[in-house]
Design goal:
By secondary structure, this protein is an alpha+beta fold. It has a single domain, classed as Nuclear Transport Factor 2, Chain: A. The protein contains 4 helices and 7 strands; from the N terminus they run H-H-E-E-H-H-E-E-E-E-E. Strands 1, 2, 3, 4, 5, 6 and 7 form a 7-stranded mixed beta sheet that branches. Strand 6 and strand 7 form a beta hairpin. Helix 1 packs antiparallel against helix 2. The protein is globular and about 40 Å long.
Length: 126
C-alpha cells in the first residue's frame, strides 16, 4: 500500500471513529480528533468553535449516525473528506432525522491527523 493509499484508509477510519465517538458521547475521543482551533459551520450557518461544540455535546449528540462512503482528496499534509451522513436525534427539544453533506478538513499535525473544520449542508427532501 502506498503512503497515499494508506492516508485514504486512515482518514476513512478516522471519520467513522469520530462519528462513533459522537454517537456514543465519548467527548474525550472527539476532542482528541479535533484540532484546538477547530470550527464547524452548521447547517444553520452558525460558526461553532471546538469549545462550543464540546460544551453542547451531551445535549445534542445524535442517537443514530449513518455515514456514507467518503471521498478523500489529499493536498500535501492536508486532506478534504466529502461524505453524506444521516443523523437522527434531538436538538433544542425537537426530534430530527436528516441527511447532510459533510465536508471535513484534516491536517497531519505532529504525529497524527486532526480535523480542523467541518461544514454541514442539509439535504432537503432526503
Amino acid at each position: 500500500m502506498t503512503m497515499r493509499e494508506d492516508a485514504h484508509v486512515v482518514l476513512a477510519a478516522l471519520e467513522h471513529d469520530w462519528a462513533e465517538a459522537w454517537q456514543s458521547r465519548h467527548a474525550n475521543r472527539c476532542a482528541q480528533l479535533m484540532a484546538d482551533d477547530f470550527v464547524e459551520v452548521s447547517s444553520r450557518g452558525q460558526v461553532i468553535s471546538k469549545g462550543e461544540w464540546l460544551a453542547c455535546f451531551a445535549n445534542n449528540a445524535p442517537r443514530r449516525i449513518r455515514c456514507g462512503e467518503g471521498r478523500v482528496r489529499l493536498i500535501g499534509r492536508s486532506a478534504i473528506v466529502y461524505s453524506k451522513m444521516h443523523l437522527a436525534g434531538t436538538s433544542r427539544g425537537r426530534e430530527y432525522s436528516a441527511e447532510f453533506l459533510v465536508t471535513d478538513n484534516w491536517t497531519f499535525h505532529g504525529e497524527q491527523w486532526q480535523v480542523i473544520s467541518r461544514q454541514l449542508t442539509r439535504v432537503r427532501g432526503a
